[in-house]
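[audit] Reproducing an earlier prediction to check determinism. Same input, same settings, fresh worker. If the tokens differ from the archived copy the diff job will pick it up downstream; this log only records the rerun itself.
[audit] input (247 residues):
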Amino acid sequence: MKNNFSCVIVDDEPKALELLKDCLTYLYPELIIAACFTTWQDALPALRTEKYDLVFMDISMPGKTGMEVLSLLPGLEAEVIFVTAHHDHALKAFKFAPAGYILKPIDDAQLSVAVDKAIERASYKKLAKSGVTPTALPQKIGIPNNKGTDYINVDDIILLESIKGCTRIATANGDIISAYSLGRFKAIVDKHNFLQVHRSYVINLDHIKRYTAEGEVLLSNGIEIPVSRNFRDEFLLVFNKVSKNDI
């Protein structure tokens, strides 16, 4: 991380709090864990007076839910990541525009997706405050393969699929196979409108046609991609946002 980002963890379960703290320390050693709270009563004054970049908020807590606490903080600038044992709060959490919605027990991949998104958002906020205009995102990317390097429009990519350590880049004009890993491509397209929905798939949200009752995404090329449990709540938050913006 080029900038130091601070976070606060609010969770009434000490063991869950310590587990999250350990995961963050391992995955993001430069992330400053500025404070931890096990009650909303202790957390509320700190969230009102201190400046944090990220807030990890448990939802089910005695007295007030995490969402009720956030409702008391209309001016909160921090990026919120919900951490909960219950998947059925996802749609209610949508109104807070969280950077992530993580289910317990915490999955490292799901946590990384949420934290990366939160840090990206926090970075743009810092740039906006400093008066620096973010540079425009590249519209083309290079795809190294056995024939050389193909340059394609990012918007033409429908999905990225991990296949035996390589990546299949599916476009309307055909497929390209690259020796680059899916994780490497995900980092390249992450600031564009892409989302990981499965350990093997990253999709372009602009190419979604339907989310089926079976829990699969139908894409513009007619392919159906499964949305795995670890990424489902994050996808539903984004999918509902896209759907509402299209209405």
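[audit] rerun output stored. Observation attached for the diff report: The first strand starts at residue 6 and ends at 10.
[audit] end
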